[in-house]
Amino acid sequence: MVLETKRLILREMAFYDVDDLFEVLSDPEAMQFYPQPFDRQMTQTWIERNVQRYTQHGFGLWALILKQTGKLIGDCGLIMQEVDGVDEIEIGYHIRCDLWGKGLATEAAQACRDYGFSQLGFDKLISLINPANIASRRVAEKNGMTLIKEIEWRDKPTCVYAIERSDSTA
Ligand SMILES: CC(C)(COP(=O)(O)OP(=O)(O)OC[C@H]1O[C@@H](n2cnc3c(N)ncnc32)[C@H](O)[C@@H]1OP(=O)(O)O)[C@@H](O)C(=O)NCCC(=O)NCCS
């Protein structure tokens, strides 16, 4: 286990998570801002990349386990992204669509923010979000972030939200 919140456990994802994660990432509505919903192979690759990130960086997207059921209901975590030639640390999140609107992404994102600042010592955290992804923008705001710029990122218009470490977030 990496982190615990009131309703969630964040732990490293593993290959046996593929079915539960596929349920989250294959949903067309959830993946409307991605080139396409994930198939099983893409979900497996997603897990592989995060397992590599744990080894390489000591962090990545973690599996979100709903304590009430013990089931994987999404992912959330920290990933390194190059933005305008600079390595930044992004907080990312995906929640199973039947559980949207209950504050779960915000709860997970806030825990990752606090961990990034206080345990990993980052000075700044960002979220990269499609301008039309209102729910994700709202999560970034509730995570204390502000919109700092809009850029073309990987050939797509992208809002860059950011928060810098302060005494209250460290
Ligand atoms: C973005 C996502 C993770 C949010 O998860 P969640 O658990 O529902 O988020 P929360 O409940 O913590 O907060 C969502 C907020 O967005 C708001 N919201 C959702 N849809 C909205 C809409 N269409 N218009 C306005 N506000 C909206 C909710 O009301 C809530 O804000 P509030 O607490 O002020 O009422 C979820 O929608 C998701 O998995 N989407 C697909 C994957 C994705 O886009 N990930 C982000 C990539 S950058």
TrEMBL record:
Record-linked InterPro entries: Acyl_CoA_acyltransferase (IPR016181), GNAT_dom (IPR000182), N-acetyltransferase (IPR051531)
GO MF assignments: acyltransferase activity, transferring groups other than amino-acyl groups
One Pfam assignment: Acetyltransf_3
Biological source species: Drouetiella hepatica Uher 2000/2452
Protein name per Swiss-Prot or TrEMBL: GNAT family N-acetyltransferase
Domain N-acetyltransferase stretches: 8-166
